[in-house]
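Q: Give me the 3D complex with N,N-dimethyl-L-histidine.
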Amino acid sequence: MMEPVADPECATLAESAITIDSCLHDGRERSLADDVLDGLTRPFKELPPKHFYDARGAELFDQICELPEYYPTRTERAILQASAEELAALTGAAELVELGSGTAAKTRMLLDALHEGGTLRRYIPVDVTETMVRSCAEELTSEYPGLKVHGVIGDFERHLDRVPDPTGARLVVFLGGTIGNFPPGSRRRFLREIARLLGPGDHLLMGADLVKDPQVLTQAYDDAQGVTAEFNRNLLRVLNRELRADFDPEDFDHVALFDREHEWIEMRLRARRAHTTTVHDLGLSVHFEQGEEMRTEISAKFTRERVEDDLAAAGLELVSWLTDPEELFALTLARPPR
Ligand code: SAH
Ligand code: AVI
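A: Here is the predicted complex, encoded as structure tokens.
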């Protein structure tokens, strides 16, 4: 039976095996409006990447994961495949909390290993994309008999306090290299927030994309089929729909460049012509010069030292560094110090 629970911040719907907390509603639009007001009125325009992921953006991201140029997904999957059993034994996790869970495709390898190890009881996906959290909850409860799923539809930068209290050894997973999408200052702040989800004996498993040949990197973010370009432009469609803006996505070119100083990829949208756009809900007019670029994402690339320093700044110690033979991508297991 579905039981609505009164909560001013988050609405909860509980079924026997599935509980879903939804923290978005108005908050989603408010955060987008704030980000647009802040980001599009700066001299160098910028929007945060979390707004890519409406239902269409999530679909495009899935297509990106299958592209020959986009090595992170298949590489992380191979590392997980090789190490899932060992990770399950090391962590003995009863619950898996996943930040930015998406379709949880790779997570199934961990869920399988924990299920076989007999420890797994609960899965807690946290994602801004409502459809992902809901479909994931449905699929996983039927794939893993006895598994409880407590989904949190929310922004992991604002709603980590909505992750339910632990009921046993906890493994927090943050896959895909999404940690690279934070600018460096807020990256460490976010890792500290994650650390607060961990008690003694709990673990964090995080994927990090590694520094490599800039050509390999730029191709991964500027594929031949133009799927990443479409993903980038989809942000403008989100603004058109959510805030009644009148962007023509075809007025912008997709740009992906590697910043060698910061060792991160930047995605930008470059105006093909000078024009002014109106964001009707905000009463805002935004002018773009011809060739002007708006930053839509950074995707930082890591070294082992950088990951260890970031974890240490969050009060976590590295337990395992797992990588592929070409050292394209790394999975790091960390824990609070004993
Ligand atoms: N973990 C998956 C998906 C990575 S894509 C994988 O490794 O393939 C990034 C995911 O994080 C998307 O599902 C997106 O909806 C989610 N996401 C991005 N920013 C977010 C935020 N601020 N809060 C919650 N989820 C977010
Ligand atoms: C989700 N995140 C880790 C992806 C990345 O590689 O930074 C998002 C992405 N952007 C373009 N392609 C994929």
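A quick observation: The two ends are 42 Å apart (CA to CA).
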